Amino acid sequence: MSTKRLAAVLATVVVSLVAAAGPAAADAPSTWEDAPEQSTLDMLILLIGIPLALFVVIGLLAALLSRKNYVPPAPETALVPAGDKAPVQHH
Description:
Elements: H1 3-21, H2 40-66
């Protein structure tokens, strides 16, 4: 890759990243009310408690539902004589 092409690609990437990050840096409108402060306990419940509770619930549901899997019976070992033309009964 030539030096000019590399410089053009890098410039395009930098400009794209800066242009995309611009709206994310905007402040809230001045007419909006300030959000109430959240305590550390509220943040811990939100960021750790809820995902942990979901993990436990999904794990319990998976454990409960997996116990009801169908397991077919073991195949019979008795051989049918070759001369017997009767249909085989499957259970």
